[in-house]
Amino acid sequence: QVQLVESGGGLVQAGGSLRLSCAASGFTFSRYGMGWFRQAPGKEREFVAAISWSGVTVYYADSVKGRFTISRDNAKNTIYLQMNSLKPEDTAVYYCAADLSGRAEYNSRYYGKYDYWGQGTQVTVSS
After folding, report:
1. What is each CA distance from 30 to 64, 78, 122, in whole angstroms?
2. For 9-67, what is each residue's pLDDT tens digit?
């Protein structure tokens, strides 16, 4: 069965860093684009970043450009989100998702584009 399992969340001070991981199984990972979304209490799910099947193309929400980096290791069936210069508004549950189109593009910001979702990992940024 398809599984996406996020890890690496936690509590950090504003200005700190955190690295999230998402381990995938049950599908041909290297053919899928991947994305990170987040959802804060009382808010809609929000796009964070996307990466193409090869890792060549990446796309970021304006709110995280210059601070977050998405990457993937197809040999390990894993994607990562390196988060630097964290702000309190980054506080949310972070989810990874798989997109069978394989692309990272403007439309990757829409959560309906993705077929598989993980269960999420909590990131809390104090102050």
Report:
1. 25, 10, 26
2. 999 999 999 999 999 999 999 999 999 999 999 999 999 999 999 999 999 999 999 99
